[in-house]
Fold this protein.
Amino acid sequence: MKKLFEKNEFLVALTILALAIVIGSINQAFFSLANLFDILRSSIVTSIFAIGVLIVIVSGGIDVSFTAIAVFSMYVTSKILIAFDCGSFLGTLALAAVIGLVLGWINAALIAKFKLPTLIVTLGTSSMVQGFMLAFIGSTYIIDIPEGMVRFGKLDLIRFSASNGTTTGLHAAILILLVLIVFSWYLLRYTMLGRGIYALGGAPVAAARAGFNINFIQFFIYGFVGFISGIAGVVHASLVRMANPFDLVGTELNVIAAVVLGGARISGGYGTIHGTLLGVCLVVVINNSLILLGVPSYWQQIVVGSLILLGTGLPAWQNRRNEARLNSNLLD
Amino acid sequence: MDKRVETPSTRENETVIPGRFANFRNYLSHDRNLLRLLGITLAIFAVMSALKPELFLTVRNFSSMSFQFPEYGILAVGMMLTMITGGIDLSMVGIANLSAILASLVLTRLIPESAAGGTVGLFILAAVALSILTGVACGLLNGIFIARIGITPILATLGTMQLFTGIAIVLTKGAAIYGFPDAFIWIGNGSVWGIPVPLLIFAVIAALFALILNQTAYGNKAYLLGTNATAARFSGIHNARVLLWTYALSGLLSALAGLIMVARTNSAKADYGTSYTLQAILIAVLGGVNPNGGFGTIAGVSLAILSLQFLSSGFNMLRFSNFFKQFIWGAVLILVMVINYYSNKKRSRSTD
């Protein structure tokens, strides 16, 4: 039981439960099915990003370019499909994913070949990718997004009408998320590649000595992040029914915050899919519920900032105390 | 990493400026890097002068450049400090905006309508003092999170960036504050004997921090801490205290940059200067600061600031869009890192 309480994931789950009870008792609307679907809908894109970020963080790196990659893939795909008048949604997804993959490999090449710090590389490529798109491809909204995206945007799995006449539905994009969750969960838990990602994050030198191909693993990681960022970009554009080149960039910190809150260690080597999903859930619930609680939306950033500090501070503090107990003579 | 740990003997015999004793080979390579950077700066200057002599080589251009670069130049000096200790400060722009907004609130809400010149002057002093205190306090908070609680600098300053920006948004409800006394605007737009005030402030800061890094115990400790934290601890350095100082100084510099920003644009807002974070990191890396800690000089950073400002002004004259500039900044950042990788590799091969 004590072990359970020391797990970050369990604490996050408890926090969500406590929040739900408090929010629900203040505003009954929180427990409605409409609100549940709403929270699910707004967490789809963040969750897709979070899975990618989790894998990078587990490997001991950090990526801040995924939102730029997502917007780039989404915007370029929209432009191409409109030009060729193509309406297939799967084609749209595939094209965006491939563009994202290629951009992710650029990150991977810089990180694996030149051993550059991941934060600085991805800061640089993020600026390059967004700057390139805005300067050379376009900087205007596209309202008439490709037909495939329009159709997908309207695709609900379940739909029902509330008594007040509004209809709510569970969006089909949740299926894409489910596929990605199952894939990455299997990858991290049951494959050699997944073990390699944890090993790389734990101790890169040891991982290399143990026979893991570090370059291959890094190409896979950053390529995978690019790949699913492309998908997330298209899903986002379908949900908001607009291709906006200024969208998403700037929200990367929220995603990283969610992943770290979910128990992934920024120093690498530890992190789980279910923890990450709980972290996303916590951030989305808080962001959505501030409005239900009547708190002005400009408090949002303070709440997220405090959450990051609390969520990273507690484990760090615990860590430090354990270390101090182990070698009390080395206290600085 | 082991190679960089200095031995006591080199420390005793070293007669050059103490901040540079960390490693003799580093010292040599630094001079070469500095020379290359000087070459790049001059080359950019020459190209821009050749392309647009009628615009670039004018007093007006130089004057406007020296009003522009001090605000992000000061941020870059702070970024360098934190990078020397092996950290990073992503919250600088947040601190700059928060402290600037607090000063703006004093200047716009508290000064009575009928106040005479002297009273207004006192209020301006109070506002400046408040913003600097805020900057130091925010920096100390970063330091506490990093040194005492043990959060990694990236995450700690990421969190406080959200926190500080959030407080700034709540204070202003997201709106801009404007309309300051003329005497305050002077900080960002005035000149003394023809020299712009922001440039003067930057020059004082650069000189002061060159002195702090090279001539004080704190400077030595900061370089050592960045080179090898464990070795620093075992040589009796109070690492936590050095980190607290570093982030407090970086907060102080952020506040100064914020003040110049407000005074220059005559307005304050919670989301001003968001692109400065990337720019400050870019300048530090371009100026030869090692992002893993242990190395960095004011001379290098100053040259990097100049070359970036020449490039930026030149692009404006060639009518390149801001988006194109954004693309180029990213490309330059990565290119410099790659060049450093190759030159370090070549050197280690030729000396080993």
About this structure: Chain B touches chain A through 48 residues (CB under 8 Å). Strands of chain B lie at 177-178, 191-192, 195-196, 267-268. Confidence is low (pLDDT under 50) at residues 1-22 of chain B.
